[in-house]
Amino acid sequence: MKRILWIFLICPTFAFAQLKPGQKDDGIKIHHVINQYSEAREKQDTALLKSILTEDVDQLVSSGEWRNGIREAVDGMLRSSTANPGTRTLEVEKIRFLEDEIALVDCRYIIKNPNGTERNMWSSFVVVFHKKSWKIAAIRNMNPTTN
User: Fold this and answer.
1) What residue spans define the domains of the chain?
2) How far apart are alpha carbons 96 and 98 in whole angstroms?
């Protein structure tokens, strides 16, 4: 109970602003899945990644590479984390429920490199309620331009 309350208090309230009263609990659970994803990437925890991704997950990364299926996605995530070390932070900006069991989650995606520089991007996640829990079904990473 304390953990759920803590998560609710640290989550930006504007991310919940558009949610219907019955969706707030799901919003908290979705925040938790996004935090787990960030943690799994940071620790290169394949077991955690596999537990929060759907089998048919797909990912489009900022380089333009498509990763289709859980194996390709996890392998690519590990390669990317190794090749681009740094602290990854995902800040949920908005959750939009497309249906009761499907939501679009928009996040700021910040990678703090070991040399002190930062990469500021956007990530969108499609999450689905699958087998009694929220899982990530698709990820889109975008690197904004200055134009």
Assistant:
1) 2-142
2) 6
Read off the pTM: 0.82
Q: Cα–chain-centroid distance for residue 135?
A: 10
Reported residue count of the chain is 147
Lookup: tokens for 127:
């999450």
pLDDT at residue 136 tops 50:
yes
CB-CB contact of 27 with 16 (8 Å)? yes
What is the number of alpha carbons within 13 Å of residue 29 lying toward its C-beta? 18
> Residues 123, 109: contact at Cβ < 8 Å?
yes
CATH number of 2-142, picked from 3.90.190.20, 3.10.450.50, 3.90.770.10, 3.90.1280.20: 3.10.450.50
* Per-residue confidence (pLDDT) for residue 19, from 0 to 100: 59
Distance CA 118, CA 110 (A): 7
Alpha helices in 84-132 (DSSP H): none
Indicate the SS3 state at residue 95. strand
